[in-house]
Design a protein that fits this description.
elongated, 73% helix, 159 residues, single chain, mainly alpha, Arc Repressor Mutant, subunit A
C-alpha cells in the first residue's frame, strides 16, 4: 500500500514535470486582463482595445504593420482587433503615402472615448501596483521585457 507521503511526493513530482512556462504566463495574463477589464467596464473599451487605441493616439497615422510589430501581433490579428473600433467609428483606416500601407488614425469620437477611459485604466494600474508592490513590479517588468526580447531574437542568440 502507498503511503500518504508517497502519494504527495508523486503528485508534486507530476506537477513539476507538467510545469509549463507558457501555461503560467497565460494564466497570469488572463488574470491581469480580467482585472483590467473589470476596471474598464463601462468605458466602452476592453483593456486590449484601450491599449490599441492608446498606441494609435501616440503615433497618429501608424501603419497596421507597425501596430503588429509593437504589439507582437500578426497583420490579420491586428486587422481583426481594429474592425470593431472602425465599425464604432473610433478609428479610421486609410491609405498611407505608399498605397500599399494602411494608416490608422483616431477619430474625434475615439479621442473622446480614450480620454474618458484613461482614469479607469489608471485605476487598474494603481490596483495592480498596490497588489504586487513597486519592487515586484519593477523586477517583473524588467524580466518580462528581457524575456520577450530574448524570445523574439532567439535565432540570433542560438547561433
Amino acid at each position: 500500500m502507498v503511503s500518504l507521503d508517497e502519494r504527495k511526493e508523486k503528485k508534486a513530482s507530476a506537477r513539476n514535470e507538467c510545469a509549463c512556462f507558457d501555461l503560467d504566463l497565460r494564466r497570469t495574463t488572463r488574470a491581469v486582463t480580467r482585472m483590467y477589464d473589470d476596471c474598464m467596464r463601462g468605458s466602452g473599451l476592453t483593456i486590449t482595445q484601450f491599449s490599441l487605441v492608446r498606441l494609435i493616439a501616440f503615433d497618429e497615422g501608424i501603419a497596421i504593420s507597425s501596430i503588429g510589430r509593437s504589439m507582437l501581433m500578426d497583420r490579420t490579428s491586428v486587422r481583426r482587433a481594429l474592425d470593431p473600433l472602425e465599425k464604432n467609428e473610433l478609428v479610421c483606416i486609410e491609405s498611407g503615402e505608399d498605397r500599399r500601407v494602411r494608416a490608422v488614425r483616431l477619430t474625434v469620437k475615439g479621442r473622446l472615448l480614450l480620454a474618458e477611459a484613461e482614469p479607469r485604466w489608471l485605476a487598474a494600474q494603481e490596483s495592480l501596483l498596490k497588489l504586487i508592490g513597486t519592487d515586484r513590479w519593477d523586477s517583473m517588468r524588467k524580466l518580462l521585457r528581457d524575456t520577450a526580447r530574448l524570445v523574439i531574437h532567439r535565432d540570433d542568440v542560438q547561433k
